[in-house]
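Module 6 notes. Inverse folding takes a fixed backbone as the condition and produces residue identities as the prediction. Think of it as a translation problem where the source language is geometry and the target language is the twenty amino acids. Below is one complete input and output pair. Work through it position by position during the lab.
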């Protein structure tokens, strides 16, 4: 049986680096609970940025490991964003007085800053 790392290196195909997924999860992670998704997204971007250099240095195992880590951390960050979105939606819809209070605070701030209120 042939070594899969040897075949991968000879074929010239680097593992997928998931950079776009890592960047999207970092941006959406800003809106996650307590910012944990943002931190995980940044770590995912780091791992994604290490895939191609490791591959071209010949360290196929490290490239594959970094690719896997970037994917896993990105999905965790996205999951935290979705959980936060569901939690926030639930809190807003189960407590309508929160919406009224926040709208009243926004009106007061606009008046304090001399801004016109939208109709």
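Target side of the pair, the amino acids:
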């Amino acid at each position: 049986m042939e070594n899969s790392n040897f075949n991968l290196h000879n074929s010239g195909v680097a593992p997928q680096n998931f950079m776009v997924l890592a960047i999207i999860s970092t941006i959406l992670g800003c809106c996650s609970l307590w910012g944990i998704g943002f931190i995980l997204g940044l770590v995912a971007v780091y791992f994604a940025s290490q895939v191609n250099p490791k591959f071209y240095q010949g360290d196929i195992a490290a490239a594959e490991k970094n690719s896997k880590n970037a994917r896993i951390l990105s999905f965790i960050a996205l999951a935290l964003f979705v959980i936060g979105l569901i939690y926030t939606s639930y809190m807003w819809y189960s407590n309508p007085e929160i919406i009224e209070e926040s709208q009243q605070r926004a009106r007061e701030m606009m008046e304090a800053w001399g801004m016109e209120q939208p109709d």
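Reference fact for the lab report: The chain has five helices and no strands.
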